[in-house]
Amino acid sequence: MPQTSSEYPVIIQGGMGAGVSSWQLAQAVSRLGQLGVVSGTALDHILARRLQDGDPGGHMLRGLEAFPFPAMAERIYKEYYIPGGKDPKAPYRATALHTKDNPREVVELCIAGNFVEVYLARQGHENPVGINYLEKIQLAHLPTIYGAMLAGVNYILMGAGIPLKIPGVLDRLAEHLPVEYPLNVIGAREGESYMMRFDPSEYMDRPLPPLQRPKFLAIVSSNTLAVTMLKKASGKVDGLIIEMQKAGGHNAPPRGKLQLSEAGEPIYGERDVVNIAKLTELGVPFWLAGGYGHPEKLQEALAQGATGVQVGTAFEFAVESGLRADYKAALLAKVKDGRAKVFTDPLASPTGFPFKVARLEGTCSEPAAFAARPRICDVGELREAYRTPEGEVGYRCAAEPETLYVSKGGDSAEAEGRKCVCNALLANIGQPQSRNGGRVELGLVTAGDELSSIGRFLPEHQSSYTAADVIAKLLEGCEAGAGANSTQASSETASVSCG
Fold it and tell me: Is the Cβ–Cβ distance between 462 and 7 less than 8 Å?
């Protein structure tokens, strides 16, 4: 079995999209001695839909059978499993939306969904596995993290916000203690605070020994945020992932007033450049991300003092990822023909963060397809919490029907151009919702600026590649150094070291 001699991996596989960084992909990467990462987004919805699809391969049942609370697992399986799968034209049964005070059924799905994904990723090897969360998706944080920890997750990665309170949450959940997390509520008045709470004891069928406290890696985009995380976090920050604007998915917005290029993309300037030399003075491991999916960029990062790199887009199109096969094939064909394009859309995501979108016919990246879709928000992962006139917490999404959004106090200008990322991401992994009249939700594929160059991972005369192909290519030319991390990329690849 491939072994890693260093405490930390050289390559971290990115946590891309809901279900794209699947347990199959994370398992494949971790088997090879690097850090495989599953996406923690919407795993409650994904588990419920996989069961409604008849649980192909029986993997969900396998994970639920290993779940430490059998009664909870049995309730979920009986509730959502459809033998043979639902009629393809029938809609998926909707799960309840997250709120500040989630009902028990939502909490149980969150715990179990995260457990199953991490458990499956950890099978067949003894190497670490991570899970990636977005800080902005706050309503599910506490039970989802607990579910991942029950499965023995080794790393928690979190960005898209400033996750100062997460390290302390990990400390307490490791002891099965009650935890709380501040909810950002738009319009909250001075002195008002809104806390989400979760007590593991309310969901445990039986007492359990303390859990392993996973290492926490904060995903940041500036030196200022890196220092803030290390100085002000509620517990230990074990490392940093420095994400540049070339990375796929949600990007940090440019500093200062937003300016757009002639093509309509955000313009980044000198204020957005990370001083890597300053990072080496912080005394923690760090990985560079966004445009580092090349062997020479890996070696450049190591030479600058980084522990390694995080790579997303290259792994997104590997055979093992959860991205739909037809989307993979179509975009890889565009890559080979030199036609692949990525647009950094300042409007697409309801979060307000710039969102990188791969141009692909038959998806919501195309204006006509987007315009034809009625505005519906029924997954709700990206909803924001706001203070109602009565002082309660309400929820709205800039991608929901504009009149509804405005009725909740939203600005109509904020609704312009917003896409339903939640439904699109589930469609990306083959779980599109069916609507009245036979309409089926379309995907919206996100990818980094490196999309056009991933053809280098394709073996000669092949139209697809594997996670092992990516790792082998990235480690080309790595040579031993002080404190090296020695990793055998595949059985056919000579042992190499990066350090």
Answer: no
